Amino acid sequence: MPATEMQQLVSLCQRRGFIFQSAEIYGGMKGFYDFGPMGVELKNNIKQSWWKAMVYQRDDMEGIDGCTIAPAVVFQQSGHTETFTDPLTECRDCKSRMRTDKMKDPTVCENCGSKNLMEPRNFNLLFPVQVGAVEGAQSLAYLRGETAQHIFINFKNVTDSTNRRPPFGIAQMGKMYRNEIIARNFIFRVREFEAMEMEFFVPPGTDEKWHEYWLEERLKWWESIGVPRNKININDKPKEELAHYSKRTFDLEYLYPHGYDEIEGIANRTDYDLGSHSKNQDELNLTATPITNTRSNAKLTAQNAEGQHYVPFVIEPAAGVERAMLAVLCEAYTEEVLENGDTRTVLKFKPHLAPIKAAVLPLARNKPELVALAQSVKNTLQKLGLGRIVLDTSGNVGKAYRKHDEVGTPLCITVDFESLEDGQVTVRDRDSMAQIRLPIAALAQHLRGIVEDAA
Questions:
Q1: In whole angstroms, what is the distance from residue 407 CA to residue 262 CA?
Q2: Tens-place pLDDT, residues 399-430
């Protein structure tokens, strides 16, 4: 059964090295988290799965990796300096700050119950930074609040260097920063996080078809990493809630322990962004109204079969890595009562996402010949390139099984004294706990089948 309370995940993630509060030894920094040995592997595996699905398995996609800082003009032209805001109120009594659009009653303080609240005001989420030694308007820049803008401002560079023409996409993963008023719900709403974002450029008039197409593609991917469709609500956002650039947006909302909340947005951004970053906007016949007085020197257009220039529409599926990670943890989390009455906690990850793919356990850690054989088995499996394989020399196989259940390791492989004689090992399956004897020579094929077949 998936996790029903956030504290179940918080406790497990701290205990088993998935997620730590950043700067914890100094009291922590709210809205910032560090990812431990298990967490970094899970994050990387989720990102690799996304990149594989979005780039490697398609013939209409390119990737980039843009800077996390951009000059202020980029975000002025994109509209973020004016519209990238949340409504903020503050309690005059307890000094708590709250987002009024997330409050059950925007007239009552969520912390102390007071009705002595300040008038709401718009709070910009961008983090400003000064670039260079001299402060001033010319050196003002921002940490990016979305990865999309570096895709748009590199549109011409990508098309010129790859000869791509719509329909095609540009994918990017990387850090983003949002100065959230309230960071809450563990890693769901934080101030530094990673995005998996793609901009798919299409001819005007085909955008609605592609928007529906990408909705289905993204639902398939969530299923492939263990997040079922029946846990995802598709919110076709009403017009009054759309972002300034959006013609239509589907919010995919997953049932987290704190309730349904956004796990991915799939937006039809029209020609707003390429138009906003282009010069001579009055010559482009734009459908959307971009920011005016652009200082870009580029004309971000494509050509149709007749050689006519046009500004492509853009479909954008954008997901947060941390939110994906939290959903995967929720779905994998399982508490089971065993036949002997004991309970075990196990993370039933899809094998290709598991932080550790297999653990090799010598039955006795003080027997050099067992440790040496276990090390040899570990080295052989590591060379398969399937992910992390570990040598666990704790010496207590039962405790090792429980530990690896809690971090989601699909297979535990025990090297015992018989292994020295017959060249076979005991292989334990995480989910069924069934054990079989296999020749060491057959382990590679067995592990590859489990990990790759589930990918």
A1: 26
A2: 999 999 999 999 999 999 999 999 999 999 99
User: What's the one-letter identity of residue 85?
Assistant: T
pLDDT tier at 294, thresholds 50, 70, 90? low
How far is residue 196's CA from residue 377's CA, in Å, rounded to a whole number? Answer: 35
Half-sphere exposure of 202 (CA within 13 A, CB side): 19
Pick the closest to residue 66 from 186, 159, 155 (CA basis).
Answer: 155
Q: Is there a contact between 215 and 131 (Cβ–Cβ < 8 Å)?
A: no
Residues 364 and 448 in one domain: yes
pLDDT tens for each residue of 337-380: 988 888 999 999 999 999 999 999 999 999 999 999 999 999 99
- Token pair 């990493």 is found at 225
Q: Are 208 and 232 part of one and the same domain?
A: yes
Domain that holds residue 247: 6-70+165-329
71 token code pair: 């000059």
Asked if residue 356 and residue 322 are part of one domain, the reply reads no
> Based on the domain organization, do 284 and 315 belong to the same domain?
yes
Distance (Å, whole) CA 320 – CA 322: 6
Does 361 share its domain with 435?
Answer: yes
Q: Give the domain-ending residue among 285, 310, 329.
A: 329
